[in-house]
Structure formats: C-alpha cells, structure tokens
Design a protein that fits this description.
The structure is a single chain. The chain is an alpha+beta fold. It has a single domain, classed as Jelly Rolls. It contains five helices and twelve strands. Strands 1, 2, 3, 4, 5, 6, 9, 10, 11 and 12 form a ten-stranded antiparallel β-sheet that branches. Strands 7-8 form a two-stranded antiparallel ribbon. Strand 7 and strand 8 form a beta hairpin. The radius of gyration is 17 Å and the shape is globular. The chain starts with a helix and ends with a helix. The model has no long low-confidence stretch (mean pLDDT 96).
C-alpha cells in the first residue's frame, strides 16, 4: 500500500469514529517524531502493539479485501499465561461496504465482535475439524449477545448496530459491511496479531508499504523500524 493512501485512510477513519461518538486516545494523534520522543513512557503501548493498523492482507486491493483497525488497549501474553493482570484487549475496526476481511480463526484469542454503528455487519461462520483446521461441512456454537446460537457451515450472521457475536478459537469467520460502512468494536482476550491469526488461504496479515510520502502517524507495523521494537 502507498503511504499516502494509508494517511488518507487514517484521516477518514478518525472522522467516522468521531461521528459515532468515539474519540481515539491521545497517542493516536502523535506524529512519528513525537512517538519517538515519548517511546520510553509509551513502552506498554509499543510492546502490546496498541495503535493504528491498516492492512490489505498483501493483496493490493484494499477496497475489496482489507481492514482498518485501532488497538485501544491490550495486555501481554505473559499476563494471559499467568492468568492474572491485564488479560484483555479492545479495538475499533472499520469494515467498508463489501470489503472482505478474509476467512480466519485464532488459536488463543476469544473475541466479541460488536456492530457499534453504521450499516449491517455480515459475519460468515464455519467450524473446525478435530485438528482445528477449516471444515467446510461443519458448524458450531456461538453466542449472540449472550444467547446461544448453533450455526451451520457457511451461515452468514446479520448484525445490526448494537448486536454482537462471541467467537472462540476454532470458530472460522470472515466479515464485511453490507449496505454501507460499519464501525466495529472488538473486546477480546490478549491480542497477538503477529502470530495468532490463522488464515484459510496463505495471505499476509500486514501490508508492504510504498513510502511515497511521510507517515501521518505510525502503524503498529512501523514500530520496529522507528522505535526499535
């Protein structure tokens, strides 16, 4: 993805988030230089990979297959392993109309996917085989706003604003906005986007960046180059 496109997506996303009554935390507005200056105090933000995250999954077709994310808060895997401390994470996502977030599951993370506002969020579901692999003929069980729901393979949940689904490891899922763009909330156990996303197809989680202009804000995938972490 071109850095100029990423910068534009950041601006558009911030505007949509504000329209729905949310405001991103102060570090979201830091310039790259300000982030470098604050790196010591912001150690947890860096280590837990909080912040801006925009991906086209390496396919180069962001409008068709991509996702905007902002990790608001996140614990560390050491907390989750010990069973105490900050064992949770929270994100805001934007799924544009007909923009696919492709079929995947998680090994560790359980998550609530919440339609925070906008159009309809479609979540396509499949179950796993006995080894945890994608099973095109197997369904499973999820909770929708705390109510048990047995799904069949390939079922497409239609989540209106305010509605949610709880997904556990082994629930394979893809999602997109239908009828317009959707602001999504995600509340989960500790999030590790570098190792805990298992895609059905061999695609990348992060995008390669073409530096055609300076970054407006750092992506979490920029932290290693800019912040040495």
């Amino acid at each position: 993805m071109k850095r100029s496109r990423i910068n534009a997506i950041m601006t558009e996303a911030d505007e949509m988030i504000r329209r729905h009554g949310f405001t991103l935390p102060p570090f979201a507005q830091w310039s790259p230089e300000a982030f470098v200056a604050q790196a010591g105090a912001a150690r947890h933000v860096i280590d837990s990979r909080c912040g801006w995250d925009i991906t086209d999954y390496g396919a180069g077709r962001y409008d068709e297959m991509g996702l905007f994310l902002f990790t608001l808060r996140n614990g560390l895997l050491s907390d989750l392993t010990s069973g105490r401390g900050m064992c949770y994470a929270e994100k805001l996502l934007i799924s544009k109309q007909d923009q696919l977030s492709p079929m995947h599951t998680h090994v560790i993370k359980a998550e609530d996917i919440i339609n925070r506002g906008g159009a309809t969020l479609v979540v396509e579901l499949y179950g796993s085989d006995d080894q945890g692999n994608f099973a095109e003929d197997r369904g499973g069980t999820v909770m929708c706003d705390g109510i048990v729901h047995d799904y069949v393979a390939g079922e497409k949940l239609q989540l209106a604003p305010g509605e949610s689904v709880t997904l556990r490891p082994g629930d394979w899922h893809a999602f997109w906005g239908e009828g317009g763009d959707v602001l999504i909330g995600e509340v989960s156990t500790v999030n590790d986007d570098e190792t805990d996303n298992i895609f059905r197809e061999p695609i990348g989680r992060f995008s390669d960046i073409e530096e055609d202009e300076a970054p407006l804000h750092l992506l979490v995938s920029d932290y290693k180059a800019w912040l040495g972490a």
